[in-house]
């Protein structure tokens, strides 16, 4: 993959997502922790999705009248960085499917496992679409659509994680000695349980008008999602080991066949034809 290891993809996605969250928090703190018009009375901590995208400032006009001007300062960044995060993360699902198909990761041992993998990928794509759309349809101007797409985003990735756990559990039955499969399974199971509990708590706090607690929970949900994305680098580590292992096997096979292996520019071995023996004329 252009000389890069596959594990770089989920790491890149998580770094982009984390950078966006940190930038939003820093911006809010640097501007004096203002109380946005979309925040409820008594709420001191802003939400991420939509609430932190609008900078409301008061300027003094020549007539000494206050005007409330909403400028979408952070919205372009929110849309762009969210899109980059989920699109590259979806590529991680596609790469994982391809590596299993080409035996660079443990191949699926049944059609059901392939079905689970495809379902996980489709659900992740749906979740990605939900995030991109909720960043476009902000809660200030499209509150209903925003909440719908928020549910699509969270639900899509939770369902995706369920199918991945299902696939990895079945793979673990056939590859019991692979500790990476076991570790990855438990990480994704933790994500499912944690996100479901946090989302339920967020919904309860929102309904009971505990806005600050709900806002904190939303930030926690976002950071847990970041850790979930980053955890996918573990799944690609065997692909790197397999590549080096296959290169070593190829080199040994070449030596057994009498050829002299040479290293190519990409780091793989190539067999030189053995020195031909002079022919005899009878």
From TrEMBL:
Q: Domain CWH43-like N-terminal, which positions?
A: 6-49, 68-237
> How does the record say this protein sits in the membrane?
Multi-pass membrane protein
According to the lineage, what is the superkingdom? Eukaryota
Going by the UniProt record, its keywords in alphabetical order are:
Golgi apparatus, GPI-anchor biosynthesis, Membrane, Transmembrane, Transmembrane helix
Q: Where in or outside the cell is it found?
A: Golgi apparatus membrane
Region Disordered, as annotated, extends over: 258-282
Query: What does the similarity note say?
Result: Belongs to the PGAP2 family.
Q: Indicate what this protein is called per its UniProt record.
A: CWH43-like N-terminal domain-containing protein
Species whose genome carries this gene: Curvularia clavata
